[in-house]
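It is worth pausing here to work through a concrete case rather than discussing structure prediction in the abstract. The textbook approach is simple: state the sequence, then state the predicted structure, then interpret. We follow exactly that order.
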Amino acid sequence: MYEYTDRRNRSLADRIQAAAERHPQHGTEQDKAAATALLADMLQAAAQHDINLDILDLVTDLPGSCYRTVSKNRTPADRIEAAAERRPDQGTEQDKAAATALLADMLQAAARHGITLASFDWVTDLPGSCYLAVARNRHLPDRIDAAAERRSNPGTEQDKAAATALLADMLQAAARHGISLDAFDWATDLPGSCYAAVVSKSRHEAGRWAVAR
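Step two, the predicted structure:
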């Protein structure tokens, strides 16, 4: 492998490690090793033109580019797993599997137009979008359960049931205006708001009952 240290005496592995730390949502130890090898080979080619990493550092972040390129060059399942890790408060293993299948089908359709996942990476995070879409496309009780799990002081099963009923009725009213839960998801966490409202009401009523006694 091409051996090189930059003007600050950092090795190629050091530079890739620094790139990885700037992008904590991407990549594995294998990605770091692969990116280091890629960077070494590219610099060996550049050396034939009297260009080294110090010179390239003046115009581009080649170590970072190598790391991002390698870390994105993974299977759909790997990309969905990475998307899930960026959203620890959402989704299940079933969501991951469904999102992987969705991504695979979308890429198969895109391939007929000559578009690959690498092409999408220039304009959007398609794996992340697939995962978020699947995680959001759950039944109302699932959305209320997720809202409850995000709270440090969750309520009761009765609160969950009441919040699900509240959410259903509010969405039925919104549907008359052509508004769905997907539309609300762009603007606010309606399931979370319903659950918080129900828990607040329950605790307020419990407090009044305690005072009355």
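Step three, interpretation. The radius of gyration is 24 Å. The first helix runs from residue 12 to 22.
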